[in-house]
């Protein structure tokens, strides 16, 4: 039994979880978890305001740690190690989470695990799918990142592709803003797209067919803006056409990366955009082409959460990879 307390505060979700790293099923692995979204605080500004986020984390986190321990029926001294996101992310929020974790680790005399948020997303598939073995090919698509990685083992990540401009989630969020769908944008675009015709609006597919498997979404966003300004199309048709263009790019780029990668056991998708059902459907078909399973964590484990941070901590703890109490909070931290 390895009980890990996980803390996530790198963007606009304050989250705490207790993970049992030795349990054999997803349900048993997540002993308790809570998550508080700050959507209402950021909505008036149409995006995440770092200072508001940091203050909200500072107010919410400490009581949430107490509540999650109570939910789990555990005292702090029964926890084996404390894990927190140490980056990359909005630095004020990261510091709130990491400093809280350090204080708990010091008070209880337990090891600290300074977790890379991207590693949390990368390993979330192994939390959800206990049978998933390394190596696997990972599409990591969130609000801040869009990458394809060959995950060879714990701490062994080979980056095959990244975005040369916007992240995929950012493209969804900007499209939502252009269409007046509010915040957060991705789920709103997905909902509206269901009512639209994906062939109605001709939109570009940047970098599709290029030899390197990189991504680009800035040109697609500009085309969405022109389509909206032209005033000829229903918002639902723009949303559906945008989503289809974005998915076509992702599938083409991922197919290219699969050809460049070594042998893998699965295609995995993680990060907030992996909650998108249309994307999951298209990736399932792509994986089947290559005779691979698609592993996609349940949507609630795709968007930011503390279970994935606790789980990444559990994997690191099991490998003896604990961190000193002066571990740094890092705004940038590539995998
Ligand atoms: O991983 P995440 O929760 O936070 C970051 O680490 O960035 O990802 C958030 C991103 C946002 O851009 C959000 O709009 C997008 O994931 N997202 C979605 C969906 N749910 C969340 N994008 C498309 N469809 C969705 N259903
Ligand atoms: Zn994230």
Kindly provide the radius of gyration, computed on alpha-carbon positions and rounded to a whole number of angstroms.
20 Å
**Strand arrangement in the largest pleated sheet:** 3-2-1-4-5
Low-confidence stretches: none
Number of helices: 12
Number of domains: 2
Question: Brief description of this entry?
Answer:
Residues 30-311 form the Gcp-like domain. The chain contains twelve helices and ten strands.
How does this structure look, described?
- The protein is α/β, with parallel strands linked by helices and 335 residues long.
- The protein has two domains: 3-122 and 303-318, ATPase, nucleotide binding domain (Nucleotidyltransferase, domain 5, 2-Layer Sandwich), CATH 3.30.420; 134-296, ATPase, nucleotide binding domain (Nucleotidyltransferase, domain 5, 2-Layer Sandwich), CATH 3.30.420.
- Helices cover 44% and strands 18% of the residues.
- The protein contains twelve helices and ten strands.
- The strands form two sheets. The protein has a five-stranded mixed beta sheet, with helices on both faces. It has a five-stranded mixed beta sheet with strand order 8-7-6-9-10, sandwiched between helices.
- Helix 6 packs antiparallel against helix 9 and helix 9 (235-260) runs parallel beside helix 10 (277-289).
- The radius of gyration is 20 Å and the shape is globular.
- It starts with a strand and ends in a 17-residue tail after the last helix.
- The model has no long low-confidence stretch (mean pLDDT 97).
- It binds 5'-O-[(R)-(carboxyoxy)(hydroxy)phosphoryl]adenosine and zinc ion.
- The site of zinc ion has 6 residues, from helix 5.
């Amino acid at each position: 039994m390895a009980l890990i307390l996980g803390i996530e505060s790198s963007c606009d979700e304050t989250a705490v979880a207790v993970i049992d790293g030795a349990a054999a099923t997803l349900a048993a692995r997540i002993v308790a978890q809570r998550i508080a979204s700050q959507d209402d605080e950021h909505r008036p500004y149409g995006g995440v305001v770092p200072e508001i986020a940091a203050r909200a984390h500072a107010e919410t986190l400490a009581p949430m740690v107490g509540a999650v321990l109570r939910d789990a029926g555990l005292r702090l001294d029964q926890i084996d190690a404390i894990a927190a996101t140490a980056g990359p992310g909005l630095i004020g929020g990261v510091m709130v989470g990491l400093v809280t974790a350090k204080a708990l680790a010091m008070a209880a005399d337990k090891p600290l695990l300074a977790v890379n948020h991207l590693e949390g997303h990368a390993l979330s598939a192994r939390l959800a799918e206990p049978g998933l073995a390394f190596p696997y090919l990972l599409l990591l698509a969130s609000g801040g990142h869009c990458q394809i990685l060959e995950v060879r083992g714990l701490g062994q990540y080979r980056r095959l592709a990244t975005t040369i401009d916007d992240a995929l989630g950012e493209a969804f969020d900007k499209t939502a803003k252009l269409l007046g769908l509010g915040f957060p944008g991705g789920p709103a675009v997905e909902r509206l797209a269901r009512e639209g015709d994906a062939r109605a609006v001709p939109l570009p597919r940047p970098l599709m067919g290029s030899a390197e498997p990189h991504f680009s979404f800035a040109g697609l966003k500009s085309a969405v803006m022109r389509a909206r300004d032209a005033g000829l199309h229903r918002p639902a048709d723009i949303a559906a056409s945008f989503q289809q263009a974005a998915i076509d790019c992702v599938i083409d780029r991922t197919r290219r990366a699969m050809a460049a990668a070594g042998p893998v056991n699965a295609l995995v998708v993680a990060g907030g955009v992996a909650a998108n059902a249309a994307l999951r459907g298209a990736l399932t078909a792509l994986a089947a082409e290559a005779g691979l399973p698609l592993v996609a964590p349940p949507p609630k484990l795709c968007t930011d959460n503390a279970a994935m941070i606790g789980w990444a901590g559990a994997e690191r703890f099991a490998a003896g990879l604990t961190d000193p109490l002066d571990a740094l909070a890092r705004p940038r931290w590539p995998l």
